[in-house]
Amino acid sequence: CLATLIIMLVGDTYTLINYVSFINYLCYGVTIIGLIVLRWKKPKIFRPIKVNLLVPITYLAFWAFLLIFSLYSEPVVCGVGLIIILTGVPVFFLGVYWRNKPKCVNRLIESMTCWGQKLCFVVYPQGGVAEEE
Question: How many angstroms separate the Cα of 100 from the Cα of each of 96, 97, 103, 105, 112?
């Protein structure tokens, strides 16, 4: 988020869209790879929608072509997109991977989570479920 804000202040919106579109396509491909791996390793899991494996494999072929073409034609944009993704690695290690955090770090993370939820209007009432409108 911080890297995106800095890029928005320094660069233009078109450049940010290029960075994010590369990241999106990268994530879409990884998701489809995960789908294929789950179909192979856990074939008995209930799936409400099940398509022929030819569909995701065909998608991956086109995805690989577009990703390789993007890396070839605009390596700087793709590199900055990867750097934007990698800025989340320290956040992952701080918030998820590090199990025995000091209490002050836990309080900080909890307060930031609460603040973010209030900012985005996603906080449910304490002890209850979301109210129906």
Answer: 10, 9, 9, 10, 19
**Structurally, how many domains does the chain consist of?**
1
Q: Which two tokens stand for residue 64?
A: 């690989």
- Are 25 and 70 a contacting pair, CB within 8 Å? yes
Tell me if 11 sits within 8 A of 67, measured CB to CB. Answer: no
Overall pTM > 0.70:
no
Residue 103 lies in a domain: yes
Residue at 126 is within a domain: no
Range of the domain at 94: 1-120
Q: What is the pLDDT of residue 55?
A: 92
Cβ proximity of 49 and 11 under 8 Å: no
Give the Å distances, CA to CA, from 105 to 95, 101, 118.
Answer: 9, 6, 20
Buried b (16+ CB within 10 A) or exposed e, 107-133: eeeeeeeeeeeeeeeeeeeeeeeeeee
**Residue bearing the bigger pLDDT, 133 or 97:** 97
